[in-house]
């Protein structure tokens, strides 16, 4: 029959399986890790489920260090206030995982986290971390609890002549481009019989003059935008401007504001939730105005 059938066994004519060739599981972990560096974090986690070699390679420090911000040590020191316990015995994968969770700092008025897929830095500043004109006067403003905010409360404006909200943050932002948004809602939402209902009784004045948004940075960048507040009952991210952090910048101070100070009329019925700082390349996910 020829040599091509030499793998037939004499006893019973059974066919012997050819010796198995090398598979993915035989790859050295160091080689696998060199490949994983080029994948994004979700892909690395999926590849880790293939076999033992990929699982081991997916824990390599240099794989996850390539996904962390270049200045992640400065970020950790700023957010965790130099807490040495944070880094003790933590591998780079665990550091990445911890930084992907919203971590509160500055007395709980701010949250910062890494986008799980890209490692880009995101930040929220609560209404409690903003300077709001008249906030302590209950005739104008009140703090209301809500599950629609990551901080579980928002500042609600009933009526005022001079509207001004200011904020400032100094932070070791990793190099990159960032967009800044105010998260606002016209009207006050609540639940009635399990359904979301928006109370619009105090909404007025926002259609007469636009709101001015301003942004400036410690290295001289500036942005100004104006727009009318619209669509009662919906949380909307209003884009205030963009800024760029260079690789030589150790810490960036960003000032931002939202004003409507035309005192010819009052305005009210507005919820101020937070200010969001987000990677500029993804601002289309949020930008509407």
UniProtKB/TrEMBL annotation:
The keyword GTP-binding does not apply. Residues 21-67 form the F-box domain. Keywords: Signal. It comes from the Eukaryota. Residues 1-16 form the signal peptide. CDD domains: F-box_AtSKIP3-like. PROSITE patterns: FBOX. InterPro entries: F-box-like_dom_sf, F-box_dom, PP2-like. Pfam families: PP2. PANTHER family: F-BOX PROTEIN PP2-A12 (PTHR31960:SF22), F-BOX PROTEIN PP2-A15 (PTHR31960). This is F-box protein PP2-A12. It comes from Sesamum alatum.
